[in-house]
Amino acid sequence: MAARVEQLVTSGEFSLDGGTWQVDNNVWIVGDDAEAVVIDAAHDAAAIHAALGGRRLLAVVSTHAHNDHVNAAPALAALTGAPVLLHPSDQVLWRQAHPDREPDAPLADGQQLSVAGTVLTVLHTPGHSPGAVSLYAPELGTVFTGDTLFAGGPGATGRSFSDFPTIVASIRERLLTLPPETVVRTGHGDSTTVGAEAPHLEEWIARGH
């Protein structure tokens, strides 16, 4: 059976720079009936574990280390035995969420993760955070962008460890170069496509948000 994409929405708190906000997060499960990977273990390890339904979890992949994307990662790893993967440039953010527990292995640009016969290629897409990554699965016609690209524009860059010119460069060079029909599965909110977002790049730059 070919890999499929499942979406679970979990709710909780995002905290950074002394502020806390209630947020809904997209948790993505990619796999088949036997095995899967989880992209962004947010808020509720028990709910994610239940959604796996007994499948073997190969990895907990973190698109970045803001607490709302990794706060359930250690607990999910403990429940499943799966390693937590994170780009090392986000270690400073990871330690804010988990000072006593390191990720299990690094993610690197160009690295390939295989699940259910499908390859996910790691694209380093910094800007929202230094170690932000996206995961491109051409066989599924989709890219998982975390908080780098949303329906309507780039992720936020107004907080610590983020940078607007960097996120624009990441989107321009790494994401908008993908086929226009590629589905963009985001860290929060609705999915979009590369083709829907590409025409608006100059507007985003002009707004400078």
Terminal Cα span: 42 Å
| Counted beta strands | 14
Question: Biggest β-sheet, characterized?
Answer: 6 strands, mixed
What is the helical fraction, as a range of percent? 10-25%
User: What structural category characterises the helix and strand content?
Assistant: alpha/beta
Largest beta sheet: what is the strand line-up? 1-2-3-4-5-6
How do the SSEs run, as a string of H and E? EEEHEHHEHEEEEEEEHEEHH
Question: What low-confidence regions span 5 or more consecutive residues with pLDDT below 50?
Answer: none
Q: If you average the pLDDT, what whole number results?
A: 96
Strand content: 25-35%
Radius of gyration: 16 Å
How many separate helices? 7
Give the overall shape: globular
Outline the structure in words:
There is one protein chain. The protein is of the alpha/beta class. The chain is built from 7 helices and 14 strands. It has a 6-stranded mixed beta sheet. β5, α4 and β6 form a beta-alpha-beta unit. α1 (45-52) packs across α3 (73-80). The mean pLDDT is 96.
